[in-house]
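Hi U.,

Before I forget, here's the chain from the pilot set. I'm dumping it here mostly so it's searchable later in email.
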Amino acid sequence: TAPEALEVRVLPALAREGEWQPVRSTKDGVVVVWTAGLRPSAKLPAVSASFALIDQTGLTARLHNGTEVPGGTWQVGNKIPKARREAAVFAFNGGFLKKHAMGGYFTEGREIWPLQPKRATIAIDADGRVHVGEWGTQLSPTGWNGKPWVSVRQNLTMLVKNGVLFNSKDTTRWGWSGKGELYILRSAVCERYDGRLLYAIVGKTDAVILAKTMKNAGCKNAMHLDVNES
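Structure:
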């Protein structure tokens, strides 16, 4: 079913602002990806948010390991193989570099960086489904439904946990640009209350507005991803 429109906070609204548009369907016509645009802050109307909403039903997720992060040799490399590209419906970026992520990295049976408790985590289960939550409290280190995790990537602490915004006065630890700017383009991912996966690019903004944007977009659990301007 089509998702409900997002709440418009800057008036007058732009054409189709907050309305979900279907962009990717399966061969049998079932929509699996919608996109929408929104200005999420009435106080800061120059801030814009771009969303992609993903219905994971019938889809399989895979973590592709970068040549720099984590580096090394892998069965699943940094590119989607040509044979799989036609079937791919969506791809998005990961988290910070190791020295900034404050978390771990696990895939292909190898713990590359030690997984840390109470860190924001995106994990892929044995059935290829993506989960977002806090490691050790919402996501068990032993796995999902009795099966071990396939891939785990951690990045900082939760932006939104069980619908509650993070509580932090020190927003510098959420990343800044090379020039030291805190109001920059930021990305995030979440699991919504309706079970769908939401990816967002919001900017130029700090982590507080990013977290509020994710919560207002229906996120139950949300985590920060990368902040590269590119």
